[in-house]
Structure formats: structure tokens, C-alpha cells
Write a structure and sequence with these properties.
A hairpin with a 5-residue loop joins strand 6 and strand 7 (119-125). By secondary structure, this protein is of the alpha+beta class. 32% of the residues lie in helices and 25% in strands. Bound molecules: nickel (II) ion (NI). Nickel (II) ion binds at residues 92-94, 134, 138.
């Protein structure tokens, strides 16, 4: 199974809005498997289809220490969120090396479909609640750095573009050799 290429901020494709999944077939299962493998390999605790340039409402999450608790959410919706908020130091596979505090609901109840298309509901708190909200933002075309100040966001954008230029340069040099 191939590892998928993860889009890096500020790639404009990260701002596309994902469409609901309507077909539950082998292709969808393969996508979920490839996304899980890509997430574990990275390593990360969550990945949204948007990040691998597939604009459908699918996310994979595993917040367990043992990495044995894979969860797949298709067409997820938040049906309840606590008034209580929490600030968590977040990172993102699309913004490597950047971590910053984001305020989100401390608890959420999410309704979604599993890989077979069966509905389920889940109440989450702690890291899982953070992760669900972070990944659902990706499906709406939103990256966590958009919660930060414009000054911080611009610094991050500049840093990411500089790294990308350097990587392209070294790839070109390697190709010449
Ligand atoms: Ni992310």
C-alpha cells in the first residue's frame, strides 16, 4: 500500500471544502487504509482526506499511545459541544515543526458514519476531542494556524515557503548528479 503525499501549508488545496462521501466501496476502504498508514508513518495522531488532496469528508485518528485504536469518521458532524473550552498545544502534518496553543471545546459529541456506512455517535474529551475538531476543520478548508495571530501566521508561511524552496533546490541538484 502506498504512502500518500501530504500537502504542506500554505498549499491552496488545503483550503478546499470537502464533499460528503456517498459511495462506500473498496476504493473508499483503500483510501482509509492508505491514510492510516500515512498517518502512522509520519507519525501523527490524525489525518484528514483534504491533507492528501482528496476532497471528501473522511478522517482517520489514533490518539492511543500503543497506536492500536484506529478510528475512521466519515461525514462527521458535531452534535454537541461543551461550553467549557481548553487550550491545547497543536501541531499538524501539513505544517511540520510548528506547534502552538489553540482554544477549542473541551468535550464534543460527534455523529459520523463508519467505513461500511453505518452511523455511530461518540463523546470525546481531552486529546481525542482536540483531534476531532482539528481534523474536521481540515474538511472545511481550515488549517490550525488560522487561529493564530496574522503576525505568527505570516512568519509560519514564510518559513514553510523557504523550506519548500530549499527542498526543491536540493532535489534539482540531486537530479543533476
Ligand atoms: Ni492537521
Amino acid at each position: 500500500m502506498p504512502l500518500l503525499n501530504i500537502l504542506r501549508y500554505p498549499d491552496p488545496r488545503l483550503h478546499k471544502v470537502a464533499k460528503p462521501v456517498t459511495t462506500f466501496d473498496a476504493k473508499l476502504k483503500q483510501l482509509a487504509e492508505d491514510m492510516a498508514e500515512t498517518m502512522y508513518e509520519a507519525p501523527g495522531v490524525g489525518l484528514a482526506a483534504t491533507q492528501v488532496d482528496v476532497h471528501e469528508q473522511l478522517i482517520v485518528i489514533d490518539t492511543s499511545d500503543a497506536r492500536t485504536d484506529l478510528r475512521v469518521f466519515i461525514n462527521p458532524e458535531i452534535v454537541w459541544a461543551s461550553a467549557e473550552m481548553q487550550v491545547y498545544e497543536e501541531g499538524c502534518l501539513s505544517v511540520p515543526g510548528i506547534y502552538d496553543g489553540v482554544e477549542r471545546h473541551a468535550q464534543v459529541r460527534v455523529k459520523a458514519l463508519d467505513i461500511e456506512g453505518k452511523p455511530f455517535e461518540l463523546e470525546a474529551d481531552g486529546l481525542l476531542a482536540v483531534c476531532i475538531q482539528h481534523e474536521m476543520d481540515h474538511l472545511k478548508g481550515k488549517v490550525f494556524v488560522e487561529y493564530l495571530s496574522p503576525l505568527k501566521r505570516n512568519r509560519i508561511k514564510t518559513k514553510m515557503l523557504k523550506e519548500e524552496r530549499e527542498q526543491t533546490k536540493s532535489r534539482k541538484q540531486a537530479a543533476v548528479r
